[in-house]
Amino acid sequence: MLDAFILLMAIVALAIIAKSMFSGAATREAPPPAGASSELQRVKVRHVIDGDTVIVARSWSEYSVRLDSIDCPEDGQHWGNIATAGLIKLIGGRYVYLETHGVDEYGRTLATVYVQHDDDAEWMNVNERMVMLGHAWVARNYYGHLPPPRQHRLNRLERWARSKRVGLWRTEDPIPPWQWRNQG
C-alpha cells in the first residue's frame, strides 16, 4: 500500500514538473512589442492564403486575418506568388500575436501581426517586414487608425524598399493591387 502511494506521488510530481516545463513556453503571455497595444491575441497560423491574408486558429475556432495597413500583389498578379511565399517564410505554421484593428467588409479580422523567431529575439512586426521586403504597398487609405509614428514608419519602409529596388520594386512601374483588381 505504501509503495502504491509513493508511486502515485511520484507520478503527480512528474506531471507537475512536465506541465511547468512544456506548457510555460506555449502559454506565456508576450510582452507587447514596441508600439503595440497591450491587448494581444496568441494564435496559430494554419494557412497562408496570400501575401496579406492568413487563416489562424485560437482555441477550437479558425478565422481569417487580413494584415492591416498593407496591400500585397494578388494571386495571378506579378509578384503575388513571391509575396505569399515571403509571408509563409515569416509566419507559416507559427504561433503569432495579433493586435486587432476591427473587421473588414469581408469579415476578416484586421490585425498587425507580431512574431518572435527565437526566445531571446526581438518581436517582429510582420506587416512592416512585408513592406520592407518589397512584398507590399502601404495601404494609406486604410491606416488612419494607426498612431502617426507607426504611419510614418510604414511610409519610411516603403520609400526605403523603393529606393533600394527591393522585391517588387525591382520591376519597372509595378501595378498596385488596388489598380490591378479594377482592371478585370
Mean pLDDT: 86
Fold-level CATH name: OB fold (Dihydrolipoamide Acetyltransferase, E2P)
Structural class: alpha+beta
Any idea what the radius of gyration is? 21 Å
Order of helices and strands: HEEEEHEEEHEHH
Summarize the biggest pleated sheet: 5 strands, mixed, barrel
Number of strands: 8
Please indicate the count of domains: 1
Q: Architecture in CATH? A: Beta Barrel
So what's the CATH class?
A: Mainly Beta
Multimeric status of the protein:
single chain
Describe this protein's structure.
The structure is a single chain. By secondary structure, the protein is α+β, with helices and mostly antiparallel strands. Helices cover 37% and strands 24% of the residues. The protein is built from five helices and eight strands, in the order H-E-E-E-E-H-E-E-E-H-E-H-H. Strands 1-2-3-6-5 form a five-stranded mixed β-barrel. A hairpin with an 8-residue loop joins strand 6 (109-115) and strand 7. The protein is elongated.
